Amino acid sequence: MIRDIQGLHHVTSLASDAQKNNDFFTKVLGLRRVKKTVNFDAPEVYHLYYGDELGTPGTVMTYFPFPGARRGRAGIGEVGTTVFAIPTGAVGYWQERLTKAGVANISSDTYFGAPRLRFSGPDGDAFAVVEVDNHSRDPWTGNGVPADVAIRGFHSTDMRLWDATATAELLEFMGYEKQDQSGSVTRYHIPGGNDANVIDLAQLQASPAAQGAGSVHHVAFAVENRAKQLEVRKALMDTGYQVTPVIDRDYFWAIYFRTPGGVLFEIATNEPGFDRDEDTAHLGEALKLPSQHEHLRHLLEQKYLEPIHD
């Protein structure tokens, strides 16, 4: 069994408009944009990162906003809902804030014993905030959300699967333990992990998902450093998974593999972090390009990357 995974590192999704995406996460959810860069494989498309002050692993939502992208179709074989943690008693604040902002599909309920508020992002993305009693992460308050109600980072994601058995076995191999069950949803968590240490597996009968704007592209799990990442890679490959070589993503190193349920998993390092090329006070302000794309800067800025207005 793998013992080096700490919980979630980041969640990466697809969008159709960079400005709307930026406004939603910074002006509505109150997160900090910690990096403005481009897709390594499609440099004409932004890669935007949102999180806490430093972009701490377990707080970072990232997006590839492909201009005009068609919306995805929800279904099995994908991450369904991305859930953020908020302090106890904060659901009422968020219901009022999201309603005033015109956010769609707001509904409240109690889920695994905790108050939860569900809502949609600009491309129909499925989100929720859930109240958490114990939280050790400091929130970002630079976008106007008070500290006593602000988002603390991720709580969890859920995965929609036709048959959750093989994915459950994978999670247990990755160090997760079964924690609870509610109907067809089984909750797993990593004891002693970071505060983003919960995964819910939802088993249901539905059509396969079709990826597009609003879909989660992949979910990334955190390991401390490159040495631990290599140990995880070997363990996964020894178990029969096809895992990519280590890829330098500038702010972390990454490996990827496809799960039995069809969801793309990434294992990402906590090092070196988002302050490797920007001062902490100015994270996310300048367009940062991977070195292999720096020669394209003028073309990208003049032709492809519409300015994002803060």
TrEMBL record:
<feature type="domain" description="VOC">
    <location>
        <begin position="7"/>
        <end position="132"/>
    </location>
</feature>
<protein>
    <submittedName>
        <fullName>Glyoxalase family protein</fullName>
    </submittedName>
</protein>
<dbReference type="InterPro" id="IPR029068">
    <property type="entry name" value="Glyas_Bleomycin-R_OHBP_Dase"/>
</dbReference>
<feature type="domain" description="VOC">
    <location>
        <begin position="153"/>
        <end position="270"/>
    </location>
</feature>
<dbReference type="Pfam" id="PF00903">
    <property type="entry name" value="Glyoxalase"/>
</dbReference>
<dbReference type="InterPro" id="IPR052537">
    <property type="entry name" value="Extradiol_RC_dioxygenase"/>
</dbReference>
<dbReference type="InterPro" id="IPR004360">
    <property type="entry name" value="Glyas_Fos-R_dOase_dom"/>
</dbReference>
<dbReference type="InterPro" id="IPR037523">
    <property type="entry name" value="VOC_core"/>
</dbReference>
